[in-house]
Design a protein that fits this description.
- This protein has 108 residues and is of the alpha+beta class.
- Strands 3-2-1-4 form a 4-stranded mixed β-sheet, with helices on both faces.
- Helix content is 41%, strand content 20%.
- The longest helix is centred in the N-terminal third of the chain and has 15 residues.
- The radius of gyration is 13 Å and the shape is globular.
- Helix 1 crosses helix 3.
Length: 108
Amino acid sequence: MANGLLDQATLDEIVRRIVEVAQPERVILFGSVARGDMGPHSDVDLLIVKSGADALDLMRRIYGTLRGVGAAVDAIVVSPEDIDRYAQSHALIIKPALQEGKVVYEAA
């Protein structure tokens, strides 16, 4: 990450590591990186959609695999049921993540 900008190779590596450890259904990039207004102190916001996962344990494993990736990452693990239940809730990050987000990985 140079000059506050995330290069595609770094994003690809972040997604590769997450997919390797989590085998998610989808990974959605949202926040300043997705909007194209990333600054020098921005992090990479990712919504990770995974069925049947212990979200806390999975987040620990994800953060462990992202050490040394070269960018600050904020990973949020949700289930498809969470997406269905809270997609219209203004109280949670799911709605804005879905509205502004870009799918950077989707399982085949």
